[in-house]
Structure formats: structure tokens, C-alpha cells
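Standup notes, structure subgroup. Blocker cleared on the oxalic acid input:
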Amino acid sequence: MTIIVSHPSPEKIDWWIEQLTPLLPGWTIRSIHDPGEPQSVTYAVVWKPATGAFLPFPKLKAIVSLGAGIDHVLADAELPRQLPIIRTVGEDLTQRMREYVALHVLRHHRDMPAISANQSNTEWQQLVVPPATRRTVGIMGLGNLGGAAAKTLAGLGFETLGWSRSRREIEGVTSFAGDAELDEFLGRCEILVCLLPLTASTTGMLDAALFDKLPEGASIINAGRGPHLVETDLLAALDCERLSHATLDVFAVEPLPREHTFWSHPRVTVTPHIASLIDAPTGSRIVAANLQRFERDGRVADQADAARGY
Ligand code: NDP
Ligand code: OXD
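Run returned:
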């Protein structure tokens, strides 16, 4: 079996080869830039592959996304569409996302951006907020990550709502499903968290029309993908105080350019796509196990549905 590794960072390619080699004895693991005999390549392990990256490898059996999202693979207009795409997910990734969502929802809930601004002005102002039981938080996307984050928020006492394509049963969480129930969901979300996958139907969803459906002064947290957000609409909504704050982990262009307004906007918190990054040893164990299972059974549980887009 020969695997090629593709990553925008050459150091990361070397790193993945180093990590995977001892876990897959008997397999050959090479850089996409030095693939050897193209006919012998059977698997590709990738993050943000270049357009047409897979065309030279006619014997590919599957592509492994080095992440939960597969949008970066589907973005390739020349992708051989029949190839299975395997997501890299697991408890480690889920736990990290739970932590990120809890941290930032609590930060919005307790008005920490305003308290930090007051500290900068040596201003002692006791801001009183309602308890979590009187705060409604909504999560868009109730999959592995959104579902787990919703459970965590419900456990903290928040009135927790979730929105997904199909209805989900999660203890303590009110489930809204499909476009028909979106407006009712949005109308209640004082804090809105986006954990949707990026697909044709979710691109640009976080726009002025959606913000106008949220309660006055609501805040948003986007840990899905940058292109979910219409940046100019967000800036307008923040500047007129329709929205109070935005925490953004993902961006249309990453790394976020140094000159971007978000970096210094008083109502924006920027985190550099770190909401949930799988750690090195755990990630490589998951990738290796999925490859071995796929080679044995021809399928794995973490396979995405490419036609659906996630
Ligand atoms: P899943 O595939 O497990 O879940 C996706 C959820 O979104 C499902 O509940 C699905 O509905 C819902 N959904 C998809 N399309 C729509 C739609 N059109 N309308 C309503 N709901 C929709 O994904 P994960 O939870 O594993 O990951 C979600 C995303 O999080 C990833 O795609 C990635 O973009 C992002 N991510 C970000 C990270 C970060 O560090 N910032 C780290 C990892 C992932 P249904 O349940 O009905 O199928
Ligand atoms: C992912 C990510 O998709 O890190 O896993 O964004």
C-alpha cells in the first residue's frame, strides 16, 4: 500500500510521514511532491490539496481528510467524485470543541469583552447579567461537534437550542430542523454558535438577513468555516450595535491577513482556527486505524457523504 501526504506546509508533510510510518508497518508513505510510481498510490492523506492533485493517481481507493471538514477536498473542481472521503474525527476533537464553545459562550454570556474594555480604562463597573438558565444559546449544526457542544451548554444550565437538517434527540436540547424552522430558532438565540459544515447551502448563511432575525444585541461565535460568514454584513451589524460581539475562529482567508479589520475591531475576538485541532499522536493513530480498517473492510464509520457535502 502506498500513501501520499499532501499539506500546504512542507514541514507538516514530513511530520505526518514521520508520525504515520511506525503506525503502518509494511505501508509506504511518501510526500505528494515525491510520490514514486503514480500507479502504486492507493491512499491520499490531505489537508487543503491543490486543484487536480489526485489526477496523476489512477489507483487511489480513498482520500483521508486531516480534519472533520471535507470542504477543502470537495473544493477541487477536478476531484474524482467517486472516491470515498474519510474524516478524521474522535473524542479528542469533540472534547476540544466542547471546551472552545463553553469558553466563548460563557465569555459572551458574562459580558467579558465589556469587562476587559473597562479594565483597559481602569473603570470599575459592576455589570449584572442573568444566570445561564435565563440565557438562550443556539447551535447551528448538531453533528459530532455541535451535538457535543450543545450537551455541554445544557449541562451548564443554558437554555440550549440546536438547528440541523434532520431533527436530533439530545437531552436538554430543543431541536429545530430544516429551513422551515430556522426563523423560529434564530428568533430565540441570544448567543448563536455556528458549527455547520461548509456546503453549497450553508455558504454565506451568516449574513445581514440572518442577523436581523436574532434578538437585538445578540452575539455570534463562528467555529464552522470562514465562508459561512459575510464579513461586510457582520461589520455593519456590529457597527450599528444590532449585534454586540463576534468571536471568529475561521476565516475566508487563513491566516487572517495582518491588515484585516477584524484584528483590531473592539467587538470582534479573533482566534486562529484553534477551536479544535486534533493533537499529533492522537490524530495519526486515528488516521492509521481508519486506513487499516478501510483496506480491510472497504469502508469506515467516519466516511463522509460527498454528495451531501459533509
Ligand atoms: P457533522 O457532519 O458531524 O455534523 C454536521 C451538522 O450540520 C449535522 O447536524 C447536519 O445536519 C448539519 N447540517 C449540515 N448541512 C445543513 C443544512 N444545510 N442545514 C441545517 N443543518 C445542516 O460535522 P462535525 O460536527 O464533525 O463538524 C462540523 C464542522 O465543524 C466541520 O465541517 C468543520 O467545518 C468545522 N470544524 C471546525 C474546527 C475548528 O477548529 N474551527 C474543527 C473541526 C471542525 P444533520 O444532523 O441533519 O445531518
Ligand atoms: C477540521 C478543522 O475540519 O480543523 O477538522 O477545521
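Discussed briefly. Residues 57 and 77 are 16 Å apart (CA to CA).
Next: hand off to the docking folks.
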